[in-house]
């Protein structure tokens, strides 16, 4: 098993600043936690709206949100006996209750565990059991799913179920299924309860599970200090001014909404909550949104919307002095063409970011100041460490030596700093392997550029080896995305009798082009832009499977093409001389 190198203590020695009266004390030190952002903003900007939920015509101020979170935290502690380190799970969409949970649960001393509501009941049961969850706060829409999951769990390990009711969502009652409702918990609490601070800022604040595409999901444990710093990092990274208006598109269950609940509280921002991301353009126009974040698929949703929805957004943003809004695109490498189209057609400025569940979501991003230094086709996707990530590098995965900053040599992205997880819950081996060599090993491939910047090329497992040549699937996908008919594309390897592996492109067409574009058209398009050996040899037209965060599920596609027996075309016979 790989070992983790301890912190360097060689420089620790006694000097004149080690006087006992110069050590941390109540007057000069406090453990960092993003829960403090809510307390500060509720004091300084009590009447500033904290969130807006159009489905219920609801607008709540920071003073009211702070009171509700204190009351909920009090009930969790006094009525349910929640203790520091206990896990409280949340299953729900981007509604106000889930935003509040990001403050009330850590404020009770507990660890928040948000669950992907698109998982199966068996997947959810696995997470609840592995996390040893004490309570499950479940939105009314997903009560049947939660009940199915709870039936799988052994009785003595089954968490108490609390319903998050929502008058905007109708349902049939489930008598006796829940112990209480969310609003009952809030109403029963004491508004004078002080939200708890962690004993150590390195205490766990959140538990998030990886997708588990190569085995059982891993429970990623993150800490208060990292969440505090990650929240501040995107104030700088997105150049946020005070009181931003943030439209919730990225699911709150995904890395705690990339830490944006805490960022919004730090900036006295307004969260525009939506049960599902179905009316983005209406919300953007109605609330003068300044920021949003999401996966590349959101760009397709915006571009494919009806013109009558796009026109108000275009007009409103054209009238803004500072333009905007800013759209952080992460979760998968975005096609630069789509980014430019979103900017040109809607006036929405896109910025790329990169990260993983293990790094609190995005931890590196594109700096606009670097735009003039990068080639035109790369200037949107160069990455640099965010303000609060100590360091990033691209290394040879075998030697851990840095690769040349030549923009060509491919290596593995490694990261280190406060925006890296504590480790994987009850999984020492995976934690040690992830931290081997003093870095967090991402498994993502990139090339390095001068000045500490890098450019993601692919996941190591997504590289296609054809005729001994490494083909980066992201590069082929970006080329195919430049065809106007392509709405989405994923490239995977399929067996090839001659080359070993061949590129298979699974393409989702825009509705207007269905039936009018052929596989030969797209192959020819790719060959005009790429070295011919990189072009797909097989093109399949079908809808692309995606996660709730918009990531294309390549493992699902690989399994499907394997089960269907898809292979490269037979080799051409040479003409007889």
Automatic annotation (TrEMBL):
BP GO terms, sorted: fatty acid metabolic process
Keyword Cell division appears in the UniProt entry: no
Every AMP-dependent synthetase/ligase domain range: 38-425
PROSITE patterns linked: AMP_BINDING
Assigned keywords, A-Z: Fatty acid metabolism, Ligase, Lipid metabolism
Residue stretches in coiled coil: none
Pfam families: AMP-binding (PF00501), AMP-binding_C (PF13193)
GO MF term (any one): ligase activity
Family named by the database record: Belongs to the ATP-dependent AMP-binding enzyme family.
Protein's recorded name: Acyl-CoA synthetase
Organism: Tribonema minus
